[in-house]
Amino acid sequence: MLLYWLPNFIPQQHYAELSPENTESQKKRDKPLTYEMANPPHYIAHRKTWNSWNTSNLKDGIRRSETALEDEFIRRFMNGTWHGLVCSEIIIKRQFNHIRVAAIIRRAVSPTKMYFLLGYSEELMANWLQCPVTLELQTVDSFKDVVFKYI
Amino acid sequence: MYSTIPIQRQWARLAHVCRALSSLEGHKLPVGGKSIDGISPPLRISRSPTDILQALAATVGVDPTAPHYKYHDDPFLIPQSNYRKRAYALSAEAGRKAATWIRDEQAHLFTTREWDPPMKMKTPYFNADPHIDAFTPRPIYNDESKVTEEDLLYTINNALIEDAIKVYQLLGASEGVNDELKMSLLQLLCFYNEKEPIGAEWLEERWFAAATRERQAATWKLGGLADKIFASMDPKTPEAYCTLIQGMAKYYQAERAHAFAQEAIEKGVPLSTGVYNSLLSCVGFLKEGTALRIDALKGLLAEMNEQGISPNADTLTACLRSISAWGGGQILQTFALQVLAEFKALNIQPSLSAYYYILCLFCKERGQRIDILTSILTDLENRECLEPSDAMDTHFFITAIGVCSDHLQDINLAERVHALLMKGDNYKLVGDAYKESIYYRHLVTVTCRHAPFETTAQLLDMLIPNIYVPEPSVMEEIIKTLEVAGAGDRLAEVWSQLVVFGLAKRIKIVEQLLNALCQCYSYQEDEIKEKIRNAAADMLKFGQLIQEQNENRRTPTQQLSATALANIIDLCADVNDKDDPSWEVVGEALGRLRSEQAVGVPDKPEILASVAKKAANIGKPGIAATALTYLAECGFEEATKACVETLGVMLNRPVEEVQTLLQEPRSALEASLHPSALVIAEAFHLAKTGGPMDSSSSESDSDSSDSD
Amino acid sequence: MSLFIKHYRPGSIFKKQILWRLNSSVAENHESEEEFRVLDILKKRDKQQKRVARRIDVPADRAEKMSTDQNWGNVWPGPRSFHPSTVPLPIRQGYVPKGQVPPGKKANAELMKIPNFLHLTPPVVKTQCEAIKKFCTEWPKLLNSDEAIEKHYPVEVITSDYCHASPTIRNPLARVVTLRVKLSTLNLDKHAKDKFLRLVGDHYDEKTDLITLTADRCPMRRQNLDYVNYLLTATYHEAWTVEDWEKEKMEADMEYYDWNNNQSKKNLVNWYHHCSNKDKALSEDEYKSFDISVIDHGEEYKLAVSSLFNDGESEKTINNYDTAVRKLLGLPERKAIE
């Protein structure tokens, strides 16, 4: 038992045996990653861009904390309302008092239901945030369409 | 982010630096686009807050590939049929309604913000600054609500009838409300007849509201709250009289309205033009017979004159409304023209609804053709803009285009009507979804019938499917036009459109389309021919698919007729390659013909005969045999000749030899002939004698030979 | 841990019971078939039967139907996130190792993130400018250069409007008002100018000759604007008033070195008289009004001394003084030190 916690004392080949899941998963390559997941945060502005676009994040921007909190609310609201349908990150763009929420949605429910959700989310978020909210969705067939690579 | 704009260089002169600066705001500037002395700034061109936005919006034209902006621009979410358009728009609105319901029910969450930890602090939730009223929860009134007169005022101003009645009762009915509020409530009740209207924010619901033609029957609520409020008012003001009479007249309680009016006149209460307008519009309910009615109308107008009340545009509309409701005929038409001339003399312009009634009066379905529309259009085209003033104004354009299409059958007039509708902001006069669809139905029909093909094609490309999805009758019209023009590629596309629009189950259209395809198939280019063949093959497959689905539902399905199947066979057989998949379709269709899954018999059997020959020629004896057997079974005369010819092709011998061959007994043929040829020989005998081949049990199945 | 168990045990038992009941009912249905009943604990079969994938026909992208001569402004009239089915361009975006192809436009969240300018193509900008031209007025003809503007509109008021993404249109920084005016454009005499400069203090920039007044003390822009206007008015009029005590201004109070009033002039005059052997006692005023031009190089000396005091000691002013003194005294010019 002690040996598990002291990897330095174990010869290299044994160490590999002791952590079988690690190596195996690397071999299998069955964990799908989206482009966003494939690029860690330090690549923001190099390989990928921000998920929130607003002026509060700039120098001397006003309403910093409120905006951050509202964005989190929007993300949770979207993921909960469009449950199991959202395939990408929720992208929030703010211009003046207009909030545009973009996402990639799976075509798992009928268009009629999607329209209901669209109307519902836009109206409820608009009332909650007191800004006009527009949803800009793109639909895809399945989660597989957004997979960038497997690890 | 921050645009630092040096706002303005102040226009203060050196000598009065300070004084000029302090009086800047009150500075009144002269009007004009140019500076007077070349130094002082020119006058501001006055504009409303939305003028710039409207100017920018005017630069955006129509994109025929895009759906209406209320739909989401994603291939999965773009509606393609009338049913879906309606369903999607109303679903979105249902979602919005659900959200507002939550907002109103949980109003406390939307008006106060609770800070962490809970219970510690509550602040008003004012996110937006300046405050936006549309995002604040609406109050809900029930029996426990504590209400004030302000609530009543709020409900009245927002036309919330049920809430207003509730608040009114909570306030203690007639005792607890002051006269001014009572008056406003009476006006509200009379206007809507105590029925809650669809809220102004539910655009889609209003747009798709069932197009029920308003019944011309007395729907006024007798002894309702409006009557009670009126009774409780003391003294009864002229305003109250006017309101009540107008309400009654609006909802066709004609006799009481007139009685009240009489009472008011006797009491010396002054009545307004609006009252007379409403009385005029229901004057026909008092009398029977055209002459009496005309007299009554004239009498009312004379009474107006006596009272010293001047008429307006609505008076004209009301008169014409009454006249058009009394039927047609020479007398009424002349009278209407007299009224029109009279008002023109008074310099009163007829509104769109007045013209609508004129059109109703003059352009009856089975009446004489009267071209009154041309002069109406000339008048309307000369106006700067068409301002809606009456709910019936929205009926003008569909009636006008209907007159163009059915009554006058004049494409030039139709184009003028359409141009007028598209001019400026006039499209809002199209009414609702139902009226829009009727409008385009007439427009497309008249264009298909009377316009040159290029114009029609352009119009169809523009409208379909995003603005308008054709109904079955219009689709037939379109197919007819395309057939006449010989536009094979467009016809081939029509099939996929039928599927998308949900019309593919309508056998009549499909058959018509097939017929049209056959008619113009021969002179198409090879590429288009292939498209047509594919479409035909797809039709057959679609029919089967529908049938399979319906087997579970046990509803009767319409089936393609034998003629239609023969058409499919004709189209698909036009390939010279033995291995082309089209032959499978041909075989399939033949199979369906033989197994009697089709209605009737083909009206052009020679098609099948020629297909049989071709099949034999190309090396598909099975298909040839099936076709000929079917012909023989149906008892077509062509069968015998076709059998001989096909056999001749198959065996590569002249006709005479084949005929002698066919005289031989079955047993001899069985040995010498290919099974398919044998089947054809049998078909020959069947056709000739009406019975099977002699000395044979005719066991051989044509289907089994298909595999060869 | 014990708490956890307490809460969760009953639930799990309950679940099992339901499962059993469901299964038994399923089994009953199959009794007619002559087979042994199978206890389908996980209900795998039912689940598989339920999932019938409904194939949904998605129409083709509308970009494919677009004609090549369409007006793009009609297709993309306003700001909007990228959508692949509407943009008929073969776009790709994403970082990939060398040799691989970047992800295409479909289902590409990166493309949706970037704010695009598809609604502001040059032709659209042109038409929009044309459309709003009717609201613009002509620029005054005589104001054709910066000098002309400065001449006719000497006072400049600078405020900032802020566009930011938030539900409120207020920004506290918008209240700040700056007023700028050139000192030379103000109508001031020598005394007033001196007083004015003393009043404005470091609001005056000598290099640009600008007086800059900034106000942010009031919550509203209008109030601040009123305030800077008041400041300018008040200082201007105050500069023109002459108070009694201003007469008590001593040489030490002077804001600059006036050579005429100082000992240096007296010394020079005395020296001049002495040289020309005309020693005489002069009054204070006579000293002041003495015309210096009679003395050779006197003018130069005056300037050199004034600049030495007013501009401060520097190599240039000292050298200047040196030359002036040498000339005045008739000394030979200084030789440059090797």
UniProtKB/TrEMBL annotation, chain A:
InterPro entries: Ribosomal_uS3m
GO biological process, one term: translation
Subcellular location: Mitochondrion
Keyword Transit peptide: yes
Domain of life of the source: Eukaryota
Subcellular location, principal: mitochondrion
Alphabetized UniProt keyword annotations: Mitochondrion, Ribonucleoprotein, Ribosomal protein, Transit peptide
Pfam families: MRP-S24 (PF14955)
GO cellular component, one term: ribosome
Protein family membership: Belongs to the universal ribosomal protein uS3 family.
PANTHER family, alphabetized: MITOCHONDRIAL 28S RIBOSOMAL PROTEIN S24 (PTHR21244), SMALL RIBOSOMAL SUBUNIT PROTEIN US3M (PTHR21244:SF1)
Name this polypeptide is given: 28S ribosomal protein S24, mitochondrial
From TrEMBL, chain B:
Pfam family, one: Rib_mS39_PPR
Keywords: Mitochondrion, Repeat, Transit peptide
GO-annotated biological processes: mitochondrial translation
InterPro entries linked: PTCD3 (IPR037387), Rib_mS39_PPR (IPR055063), TPR-like_helical_dom_sf (IPR011990)
Alphabetized GO MF terms: ribosomal small subunit binding; rRNA binding
Main location: mitochondrion
Name of the molecule in the record: Protein PTCD3 homolog, mitochondrial
Organism: Pieris macdunnoughi
UniProtKB/TrEMBL annotation, chain C:
Coiled coil (residue ranges): none
Pfam families, A to Z: MRP-S28 (PF10213)
InterPro entries in the record: Ribosomal_mS35_mit, Ribosomal_mS35_mt
GO cellular component labels: mitochondrial small ribosomal subunit
Molecular-function GO terms, alphabetical: structural constituent of ribosome
One of the protein's GO biological processes: mitochondrial translation
Domain of life the protein comes from: Eukaryota
Domain called Small ribosomal subunit protein mS35 mitochondrial conserved: residue spans: 171-242
Name of this chain's protein: Small ribosomal subunit protein mS35 mitochondrial conserved domain-containing protein
